[in-house]
Specification:
heterodimer; A: 350 residues; Rossmann fold; OB fold (Dihydrolipoamide Acetyltransferase, E2P); 6-stranded mixed β-sheet; 9 helices; 20 strands; B: 260 residues; mainly alpha; MetI-like fold; 0% strand
Chain lengths: 350, 260
């Protein structure tokens, strides 16, 4: 539905360099990258606020590269919300409706139902200065959603909110997506990317360096940057099960990992940092609840220590020191025990 | 050694002297004017006409020139263009040049043999010695106050807010009138009030263009020249009182609207 084709733009501080990607109808597409990678600029180009130097943008097959902002059917929610401070919440939400052919009553109903959908119906008479960050974000979403955009662009929508409200808004965004809204969401937070996106493109230095499903991107990072940026090489999709008050995640119907999580979700992703995994020759008693025996399949020198890849039914990456390699006499094919704490496993609801 | 005066005390004293410097001449003038003479002066048709003329010419100048000055302020904030510094300098020109010189310049600009003068004559309007000329002279010297205040106002409107409105389908015209202008309104209003006040108090430029009909600053000058201090004083006090109350009313009206 959205095709970004070879977009380039020079800007003070950074460049966008021949950026191309495709968003399909119904996608929740995440553009993941560090701040300053040019993500927001890209959104502004797609929305038409900034003109690219070269390249084209197609929406539903139509070239909109030079189309006027107000004629594109694209909604953009800014990182700082950009709520109109002199208008009430109701007037903010209704802003895009004036000039449409709707009657006064239809407009009113429209505002009411959009506000209800976003849980801000009781705030309609309020002035923006009296609202909290989370409420402002909802107003910004409502104001954009009411136009029924073909594509919704979100610029770091959760960045400046605290944890509790973040969780709330995440589920709200999921709901909006489930209702059929195609979303392109820009973030620097990989958890956000995993928990919301069905497709992720990683952008670095103005270039898309990897694109795929969350699993593809996180399990098989294509470059040092992605691996470093996402920070986890042990990344699995799993199902939660509970037995005797303990929570386990079952991966590929083969390996069962003890996890600690409050999430009551069934499915999600597990991330274990390779630094958190330690190795031993014999099974040992420790506070680690996850103990597996496996075979070393590969040993790769890394910038900090050595990466050992073991097969325990899953491929697990462990980062250890050179000294440990020598003391334990680790070679390809060695049988080793791996240990990690349940609390070292990060479960992210999908 | 024990410190008797702190820096704050010294500053307070200096500040009090400045306040006294401003207030003392005014109070002196007001105290030397009897209520009876003030009342008598207010009854004179010449005085009343001149005060009314001063108010409406300045008001007209402010409103007419605001139509172009406000968009210019917006351009100065939002657009990048060559010679922007030069344009800003030109705008401040009326503030820095002597106003009598400005009056001579305007007189040359609107006199009968100038282009403006000829255009005026064609529609039966003679600027020299006419309220229209007074309005132009007042606007000339006071317009920088409006432009600069409005510019500060527009500079305070985040560009993102305007962009957000554009993505919501609004045309640039609608964005200007529903977002930029209302958000800069507080500064624009104080700019308008300032321009109006500055226009009302103008003497040097106006006297070159129109001695008659007589605006109050010129009437005060004339009474002083012909009859002396004693006769100039009641008109001055009356004019000051009316000007002050006008600005208090305007300010509070503007504030009330803001608080709504």
């Amino acid at each position: 539905m959205l095709t970004v084709d070879n977009i380039s733009k020079k800007f003070s501080g950074f460049n966008l360099d021949k950026v191309s990607f495709n968003v399909e109808k119904g996608d929740y597409f995440i553009l993941l990258g560090e701040s300053g990678a040019g993500k927001s600029m890209l959104l502004e180009i797609i929305a038409g606020l900034v003109n690219p130097e070269s390249g084209s943008i197609f929406l539903e097959g139509k070239d909109i590269t030079r189309e006027r902002i107000q004629d594109r059917k694209i909604g953009l929610v800014f990182q700082d919300y950009a709520i109109f401070p002199h208008l009430s919440v109701r007037e903010n939400i209704a802003y895009s409706l004036s000039g449409t052919k709707l009657t006064h009553l239809q407009k009113k109903e429209n505002v009411q139902s959009t506000a209800e959908q976003l849980g801000i119906a009781d705030l309609l008479h309020r002035k923006p200065s009296t609202l909290s960050g989370g409420e402002l974000q909802r107003v910004a979403l409502a104001r954009t959603m009411i136009q029924q955009p073909q594509l919704l662009l979100l610029d770091e929508p959760l960045a400046s909110l605290d944890t509790l409200i973040k969780a709330d808004l995440r589920s709200m965004l999921r709901k909006i997506h489930r209702n059929g809204q195609t979303i392109l969401h820009v973030t620097h937070d990989y958890e956000e990317a995993i928990s919301l996106g069905n497709k992720i493109a990683v952008i670095d230095n103005g270039k898309i360096i990897q694109e795929g499903t969350p699993e593809e991107v996180f399990r098989f990072p294509k470059s040092e940057f992605v691996a470093h940026f996402v920070g986890v090489k042990n990344f699995f999709k799993g199902k939660l099960t509970r037995e005797n008050k303990s929570t386990y995640a079952l991966i590929d119907n083969r390996v069962r990992i003890r996890v600690e999580t409050d999430e009551d979700a069934e499915e999600g992703y597990l991330a274990i940092r390779s630094e958190d995994i330690f190795l031993s020759k014999e099974m040992m008693q420790s506070s680690a609840l996850n103990n597996f025996q496996g075979k070393v399949v590969e040993i790769i020198p890394a910038s900090t220590g050595v990466e050992v890849i073991l097969d325990i039914g899953l491929r697990i990456h462990a980062l250890v020191t050179r000294e440990s390699i020598n003391t334990l006499g680790i070679k390809e094919g060695s049988e080793l025990w791996i240990h990690f704490k349940a609390t070292a496993v990060r479960f992210i609801k999908a | 050694m024990k410190k008797i005066f702190s820096l704050q005390h010294v500053f307070l004293l200096l500040g009090a002297l400045i306040l006294l410097f401003i207030l003392a001449p005014m109070l002196g003038m007001i105290l030397k004017t009897s209520p009876v003479s003030l009342f008598e002066t207010a009854k004179e048709k010449e005085v009343r006409d001149s005060i009314w003329l001063t108010i409406w010419t300045s008001m007209a100048g402010t409103l007419i020139f605001a139509v172009a000055a406000i968009p210019l302020s917006y351009l100065l904030v939002r657009k990048k263009f060559h010679f922007k510094k030069l344009v800003t300098g030109i705008i401040d020109l009326p503030v820095v040049i002597p106003h009598s010189a400005a009056g001579i310049a305007i007189l040359g600009f609107v006199s009968r043999d100038s282009i403006m003068g000829k255009i005026g004559s064609a529609v039966g309007l003679n600027f020299v010695g006419n309220p229209a000329g007074i309005t132009i002279a007042m606007a000339f010297v006071s317009i920088p106050y409006l432009i600069n205040a409005a510019r500060d106002g527009f500079a305070g409107v985040p560009e993102r807010t305007e962009k957000a409105a554009l993505t919501l389908g609004a045309t640039p015209v609608r964005v200007f009138f529903t977002i930029s202008l209302p958000l800069a309104w507080r500064n624009i209003v104080s700019g308008l009030i300032l321009m109006f006040a500055r226009g009302m108090s103008e003497f040097g430029a106006v006297i070159m263009v129109a001695y008659h009909p007589m605006i109050t600053p010129i009437l005060i000058f004339e009474r002083f020249g012909s009859f002396g201090l004693k006769y100039a004083r009641p008109v001055s006090v009356l004019f000051i009182l009316i000007s002050l109350s006008l600005f208090v009313v305007l300010r509070s009206l503007a504030k009330e609207k803001e608080d709504e």
